[in-house]
Specification:
The protein has 140 residues and is an all-alpha fold. It is built from seven helices and two strands, in the order ααββααααα. A two-stranded antiparallel ribbon has the order 1-2.
Length: 140
């Protein structure tokens, strides 16, 4: 199949497919006499796998490892378990940071009681070299 057909079947843009090939995430396609790339059903499955991993925000280098371990089907799942556990830990850390960000923004929104820009506490806080969160907490 051509790259356009692969893109449609895998729901991965052709440009992204070329990129994945260039970094070795997807095996280089064979070429037809006219120079077009030729793909097979295995490439569709690999791209669907990669797309699903990207939907889970798994970094490319980790996806490479996950693709590589599949070449040894009798190997232990420990590597896969560890990689996914690390990704889960990162997601949980990001959730903590997002909650802190949400609280800081909520504090900023409620901190300004001025009617004019020159007295706007939010703008003053954002211009400050100090961490915005600590400044807003001090006002409350």
């Amino acid at each position: 199949m051509k790259i356009s057909e692969l893109a449609q079947a895998s729901k991965v843009p052709a440009k992204t497919i070329r990129y994945y090939e260039s970094i070795g995430l997807l095996a280089s396609a064979s070429r037809a006499e006219n120079g077009y790339r030729c793909y097979n059903p295995h490439d569709v499955a690999t791209l669907v796998f990669i797309r699903r991993c990207r939907e889970l925000n798994i970094p490319i280098d980790v996806i490479k490892q996950l693709v590589d371990v599949q070449h040894n089907p009798d190997a232990s799942c420990a590597t896969v378990d560890n990689l996914i556990a690390e990704q889960l830990a990162k997601v949980r850390q990001t959730q903590i940071e997002l909650r802190q960000l949400e609280q800081t923004l909520a504090n900023l929104v409620s901190s300004c009681r001025s009617e004019i820009i020159q007295d706007c506490y939010i703008l003053q806080s954002l211009k400050s070299a100090e961490k915005t969160e600590s400044m807003v907490s001090a006002v409350k």
